[in-house]
Each structure stands twice: as C-alpha cells, then as structure tokens.
C-alpha cells in the first residue's frame, strides 16, 4: 500500500469494526515514531476488550482515550489529554470514524432517531475537528513541507454512499435508513466546509467511503471484509495530495458523486 507515514494519529470509534481494523493495520507499518490515540466511548466496557488486548501488546504505540462524540465535555477532555501527550509535533492524522445507524423512513423515523444520528454523525465530528484543530495546525507548521498530505496534517471523514444525494435514491428501497442518510449528507457538507476553512493552514480534509463492509454497523450481508476495506482506505489516504482536498473518494480511490 502507499504507506501512511503520519506519526501521530487519532481514530474515533477505534474499539470495533473499521476503527479497530484501522488500528491493527497501522501497527503493521514499520513507522518507528508512530503513536496511535485509539478513542472510544467506553474504554473499560466489554465492547473494547479487543482494543485493550491490542494496547497491552503495543503499549509504546497505542494510547486508549475516552472520547464520546455525543458528549461535548468528553470531546474537550480527550483533546486536553491528547494535547498533553503530543508534544510540539502536533497531530498529523485525525480519522473521524465513529458513527451510528438508525433505520426508518419518513413514516417510521422517530424524532429521537433523527436527533441521535445527527448528534453522533454530524455534531460529534464537528466538535472533534474544532477541539483538535490547534494540534493539526501545529503539525502542519512543524512539518516544514509545502502542500497537503496525510503525513503532514489531515482530517479523514469516514462517510458513505448513503450520504450521496446522487447515489442513495436508487438504493433507498434496499436500505431504508433515512436518519442515517440525512446525517451523513450533513457530514459530507461538514467535510466540504471544513476543507474550505482548513485550506489556509494546509490541513487536508476529505470524505472517504469504505464500501459496504461486514461490521456490526454494515451487517452480515455486506460483501466486503474489514481487512480489504481498510487496506484500500489506507492506500488512498497514503496517496492523497491537495488535489483531493475537499473531495469524496471510495476505498478504491474512485471519486464518489455528492
């Protein structure tokens, strides 16, 4: 794969599914100075056991941080903690991966489902970008390299075809997940506007569709294994330049229409 050489990496929702697989694959890379901040809602809970085992085996590389994207004070606290551990080099790569799915149509979607998906899938990543921005800015300055890349300073938003206004309507009968789709369309707009704001700091920002993957979120019918999806996404992340800034790609590197 096109190696991701980013040293300091933070991943949200890192305790399972694509987040956990991303942590595993970053460990396979022989980047010596790498530090992974693996964040999740409940680091001590049963759903984080695999991540805890991984951190035990690689204590010098992985730090598990509590970060609940639904809780603004948790996001703030996590940023303070990570900031105290980062040093002067800042944060090179922020992967906004945490997300939830809610099923429903116009007739069946509840107000609660709409609020929950929006809080987790849009407001959460917005707050994460906001709180970690100073560390991304520090990394961009410290690099001394012109242009944009994931090795310098980047925000990668893990999105979905479900957020594509062009592609989703034809899939809607198969995937009646209206709250999820609307929140991910909002997440895509967040990506575009964040890219606009971060341009001046040379912090790369883009949306990445992992494919339909066999995870708790993707379900058992999905055709793609986590390993294959993440291998593809890391290839894409490693090859990004300013040309893809503000863009929407899938795990094979193909452009996805908004």
From TrEMBL:
Belongs to the short-chain dehydrogenases/reductases (SDR) family. InterPro entries: Fungal_SecMetab_SDRs, NAD(P)-bd_dom_sf, SDR_fam. Gene3D superfamilies: NAD(P)-binding Rossmann-like Domain. This is C-factor-like. It comes from Sinocyclocheilus rhinocerous. One of its GO terms (molecular function) is oxidoreductase activity. The gene is LOC107711211. One of its GO terms (cellular component) is cytoplasm.
């Amino acid at each position: 794969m096109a190696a991701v050489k980013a040293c300091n990496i933070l991943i949200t929702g890192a305790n399972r599914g694509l987040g956990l697989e991303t942590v595993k694959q970053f460990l396979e890379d022989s980047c010596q100075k790498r530090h992974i901040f693996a964040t999740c809602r409940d680091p001590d809970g049963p759903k984080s056991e695999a991540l805890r085992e991984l951190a035990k085996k690689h204590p010098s590389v992985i730090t598990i941080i509590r970060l609940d994207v639904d809780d603004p004070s948790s996001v703030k606290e996590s940023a303070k903690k990570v900031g105290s551990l980062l040093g002067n080099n800042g944060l090179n790569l922020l992967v906004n991966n945490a997300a939830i799915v809610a099923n429903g149509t116009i007739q069946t979607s509840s107000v609660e489902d709409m609020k929950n998906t929006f809080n987790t899938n849009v407001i959460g990543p917005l707050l994460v970008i906001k709180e970690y921005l100073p560390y991304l800015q520090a990394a961009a300055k410290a690099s001394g390299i012109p242009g944009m890349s994931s090795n310098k300073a980047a925000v990668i938003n893990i999105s979905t075809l479900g957020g594509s206004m062009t592609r989703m309507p034809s899939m809607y009968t198969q995937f009646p997940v209206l709250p999820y789709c609307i929140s991910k369309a909002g997440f895509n707009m967040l990506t575009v506007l964040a890219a606009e704001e971060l341009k001046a700091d040379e912090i790369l920002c883009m949306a990445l569709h992992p494919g339909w993957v066999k995870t708790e979120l993707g379900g058992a019918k999905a055709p793609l294994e986590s390993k294959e999806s993440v291998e593809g996404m890391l290839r894409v992340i490693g090859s990004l330049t300013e040309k893809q800034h503000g863009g929407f790609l899938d795990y094979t590197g193909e452009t996805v229409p908004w």
